[in-house]
Design goal:
The protein has one domain. The longest helix is centred in the last third of the chain and has 48 residues. The chain is elongated, with a radius of gyration of 21 Å. Helix 1 runs antiparallel to helix 3, helix 1 packs parallel to helix 6 and helix 5 runs antiparallel to helix 6. It is about 75% helix and about 0% strand. The chain contains 6 helices and no strands. The relative contact order is 0.14. By secondary structure, it is mainly alpha-helical.
Amino acid sequence: MEALTNYIDFSKLSFWFAAGTIFFNPSFWCLVGTTEHKTRWMTRLFFGNKYVACYVFAAIVFSLGVYRDYKYHEALLDQATITSLPVDDNIVKSIAVGLYVIGTGLVLAAFWRLGIDGTYLGDYFGILKEEKITGFPFNFTSDPMYLGSTLNFLAHAVWHKSPAGLLLTIWVYVVYKFYTITIEGPFTEYIYSTAAKAKQQKKAKAKAKVH
């Protein structure tokens, strides 16, 4: 079998456009989320209603996700596929379906647990959960949405037998991991630790007034 890189045409604009949307989406929601938390600019834009601001943000992020997925699919159609695999085509498709099922299952389970505001950075808008969610799928992985999404990208690449799709899937994983480690994880921890401290201070003041 020829080297996998021989199947990837880096001159195709669609490949780089897909890679760009993969990078842009988390960059966008991290930038909007962190600036919203610090300045409440989106909440002010919607007359102080943090829920409306969060739901509008969710609609934008969801739309960007659909567009990214479309550009990824378009990029795969522009690339060569492997036709000389040592396994039957039905086995390849079965593996892809299995990955789709696992990936989509993780995404839907996480969405069911978090709701719209929990999924779309509601805590950055001041919509905080009472306690950390630890049930499935969060007892399986700390980032089920990202893992599930990555598995869906991988499933699509396997279905199309696309080395370019595999490379873009690796890029998806790297980008998600980067933002989780450098921004989302630490910032979310900061938000909840700050909220916990404020809650404790409020309780201490209330107790002092009683005495």
